[in-house]
Amino acid sequence: MAAMLCFTFASAATARTVRVVAFGDSLTAGYGIPRAAAFPAQLEVALRAKGLDVAVANAGVSGETATQGLARLDWSVPEGTDAVIVELGANDMLRGLDPAATRRALAEIVQRLKARGIAVLLAGMRAAPNLGRPYQETFDRIFPDLATTEGVLLYPFFLDGIAGDRTLNLPDGLHPNPDGVKRIVAGILPKAEELVAQAGKGK
């Protein structure tokens, strides 16, 4: 019994919070809504409600492209980070940037995180139909292809369930309102739980 108690106390003493960084653009940062209603904050609440000891940091920068994200990766994802949700690409698509450049930047972000022993969840984006079918098909392939090639988790479409829904977006039609963020969190939550589990194994 004494040995069991010692083991229990030792396990409790060595357990620590899993540190997750949500690394993205305005969709992560929480453009136009209170920071407490933004994706990282709502996701942390949802994960903790599942009994997980996690802290989710908001490393979102509005207007950022994948290449710009790559440029700030090292200081935005500090030492001690266990897992990262990569949510970039929407601004590349909105500006009609070359999908090859987006792919290269995202690939390097994922590779550099993996090299640091950080678990990765790639949040996918989809191109708007008005950009034309060739662009749309090329852009949309970036995320599943990278997830397969790099062996990381994938949530296929970050805006699944809210894109085009006026009741879940701000008046600009591009950014989720707090209810929209809640829908995003509900959709991505199973993958986020899987991410935390992966990160926990590496601790």
From TrEMBL:
One of its GO terms (molecular function) is phosphatidylcholine lysophospholipase activity. InterPro entries: Ester_Hydrolysis_Enzymes, Lipase_GDSL_AS, SGNH_hydro, SGNH_hydro_sf. GO terms for biological process: lipid metabolic process. Residues 22-182 form the SGNH hydrolase-type esterase domain. PROSITE patterns: LIPASE_GDSL_SER. It comes from the Bacteria. Pfam families: Lipase_GDSL_2. This is Arylesterase.
